Structures are given as C-alpha cells and as structure tokens.
Amino acid sequence: MDQRQHLKILLMKELDRRRREQRRYDWGLNARDNQRPPEGNWRTWMILAGRGFGKTRTGAETLRQWIKEGKSKRIALVGGSLHEVRSVMVEGESGLLNVHPLQERPLYIPSKRLIKWKNGAVAQFFGAEAYEQLRGPQFDCAWIDELAKFRKAEEVWQQLQLCLRLGDNPRCILTTTPRPTKLMKELIASPEVVVTKGSTFDNMANLAPTYIEQIRKQFLNTRLGAQELYAEMLTETAGALWQRSMIQYQQPSYDESNRPELERIVIAIDPATTTYNHSDETGIIVAGIDTTKQAYVLEDHSGRLSPNDWGRRVVDCYYRLKADRIVVEVNKGGDLVENVLKSIDPTIPLKSVRATRGKYTRAEPIAALYEQNRVFHAQPFTLLEQQICDYIPGITSKSPDRMDALVWGLTELLLESQKQPTLKIWG
C-alpha cells in the first residue's frame, strides 16, 4: 500500500468518526417525538415517564438547545440533593456535560455549584432539602429532576416559582416518575403545565435486553411496575369499584406488530347526544378476546367529538383492526349512531344494547373479571383508568362515558359470548 492510499484510508476513517460524533450529538435526529418540547404557550413541561425512558437526556438536551439559541441564560438545576444534581443531572451519562460535544462543553465548577457556557449562560445547583437557598436568586429557566420524591416538594416548588421571573417567558422542565402526592395531582391538573407521558418500553432500543427481561419478570402486572415503568399515578379511591391494583398491562406494550392472536374484536360506543364544550364525551373503546378467553382492552378513541368525527374514527378502526362488530348503547342517541355510521358505511354490522339495569349492576361483573386477572390493558389508558378507578357507585355524578363503553365491550366479549348475537346490517 503506497502512502497516498494510506492517507486516503486515514481520511475516510476520520470522516466516519466525525459523522458518528455528529449523529451522536444531533438531538434533532435522535429524539423521539415524546422527547421534543411541546408546542404552545406553556410555563412548565412535565415529563412524567417510567425509569429508563430517557428523562434525564431529554432535560439536558432541551437545556442545551435553549442555551445555544440564547433562550435561557440563568438556569436553576434542582435535584433531591446536591449529590444527585452532580451525579445525575450534570456528570451522569445523559447529564449536561455529556450531551455536549467536547468543543462545546461548558466550564464545570463543582466547588461553586456552577456550570458556565461560553455565551455567558450560567446554571446553578440546588438540593431540595436546602430549598431556602432559592430565596433571592432569579432565573429564566429551571430543570427539576424527580420532584415527586422530594420530602418537601411543595416548599421547593413554591420557592422556585418565585425565582422564575427573568426574561419574557421563564420556563421550567420537570422530569419525574409519578407518586400520588397532592402537589403532583395539582400540577397534572394545572392549565399552565403540559404533561408528556412515556414508559420504560418506549426506549427499548437504548436499554440492555437483559434489563428489559429482568424488569418484565420482576414487575410484570404489579402496582410498582405500573408506577415505575408506565408512569401511572397509583391513587386508590375508597369505595371505588375498580382499584389500581386490579389493572394489568400486556408486555410489551401493544402495537400493530405485537397484537395478541385474537378470536374476536369489538368496538363499543357510548354516544354523547350533544357536542358543546361541556358536553359528555363519546366513549369509544376497542377490546378483543383470545382463544383462552383472556380479554384485552386494545385502544381508547373516546373524546368530545362531532358525530362525523367519532363516526369516522369508528369506521376506520373497524377496518384497520378487522373488527367483528360495533356495539352501541341505544338508550341515548341510538338513532343518531345508526344514521351516522350508515352515512359513512352502510355495510358495517351493528349490535344495539339497551341499559335495563343500573350502571353499578352492569359494571360490577366487569370489575370482578379484572380482579380475576381476566382483562389486560394493551398499554396505559390514563383517562379511562382514572375514570374507572374514580367511579364510586351512588356517588359519582358525572357520566363515566369511557367506563360505559368499556363495560359494553367486555360484556359482549366475556359475558355474552355464549348467547346468539343480534346483528343489524344495513343493505
């Protein structure tokens, strides 16, 4: 090999190394959709996700981009302790230092609890136990990691809000797994907080296969797994027909590539009769059953929708999943449902069901099936699960539309399977 060929090989290797490095530090290429900042005018972005989701990387990369663009100049980094700020948020594999290419890496001054960037931006460290140190400083940006586990979370949050007063639009990134605390519930319900949810399994491509295998064995269908892997808020409501401990999840999370082999699939509708801002939702739940008579809640397409919108959702879902039939409650809006679906596709089979018993009487046997481990959720359905776990017979006043659709769908699959169905097919 002559010298010219040798130089060419060295040049190619160097170019390849630079391309790999460029890709490694290009968050625009590497980020998943649920790791990108949401659109709109928000003050706090809460990334409520399971362990291993990539919360730390998301927080660090977002700050890196905002600092690079000049959007953030004075930043507060808040962790459970100063040690956790340093070891996770700053020095960790996905921390602030390591998401920067070497030539862009900021100056780290641990003795002063500071990071300084070349453009003048400065990040200061705070431990949650010494939250009173937040009195006085002011910031245009903050990143809080694992707020849900702070012993004095409310005090930390209140002090930090008083500090976020610089610039035109001070913002906060909050990365945490959930715990059913008063503060967490308030933040999730706040119109100023945008919540992005995600599970450990969203990041499977970047996690060791042995880790995935181990957590499936250890936490499959457990309450701890629902909280730590799926980021579900595990609240228990006294007197509720369903409890969080009764909800089990399919592993891995359902998608088109790993749908279980199902004998039947139905789409259940609990229609709303109006579409005003404060109207009830139209409940649309998709469920299936396999050869062992194990039921799966596959999809939730409920919402406050116009008849045309929910009609098209139902029809699209029917053909996409090759469903067997549509089950609809006709006590309210039965004719509306028939007319809407007929206008979109007159060949779809429709089974009408009528509520002749009270809501509790209909729902109780379905809740019992959950308790017997006969029902799996293909993935977390936050609004549906909140609705069923908050439903207290005789007390809950608002119509639980998603729950009603769920009950009709699972009744059709698990309790009516031995009966001859009555179908209505338009011709």
Please characterize this protein's 3D structure.
By secondary structure, this protein is α/β, with parallel strands linked by helices. It folds into 2 domains: 27-203, P-loop containing nucleotide triphosphate hydrolases (Rossmann fold, 3-Layer(aba) Sandwich), CATH 3.40.50; 235-415, Nucleotidyltransferase, domain 5. The chain is built from 13 helices and 14 strands. The strands form 2 sheets. It has an 8-stranded mixed beta sheet, sandwiched between helices. Strands 13-12-9-10-11-14 form a 6-stranded mixed beta sheet, with helices on both faces. Helix 9 packs across helix 10 (334-344). The longest helix is centred in the N-terminal third of the chain and has 22 residues, at 3-24. It is globular.
Write a brief structural summary.
By secondary structure, this protein is α/β, with parallel strands linked by helices. It has 13 helices and 14 strands. A hairpin with a 5-residue loop joins strand 4 and strand 5.
Keyphrases for this structure?
427 residues, Rossmann fold, 13 helices, 17% strand, Nucleotidyltransferase, domain 5, alpha/beta, 2 domains, eight-stranded mixed sheet, globular, six-stranded mixed sheet
Layout of SSEs?
Blueprint: H1 3-24, H2 27-30, E1 44-49, H3 55-68, E2 74-79, H4 82-90, E3 107-109, E4 114-116, E5 122-127, E6 141-145, H5 153-163, E7 171-176, H6 182-189, E8 193-198, H7 209-219, H8 223-228, E9 264-270, E10 283-289, E11 295-300, H9 307-320, E12 325-329, H10 334-344, E13 350-353, H11 359-371, E14 375-377, H12 382-390, H13 401-415
Helix pairs in contact: 9-10, 11-13
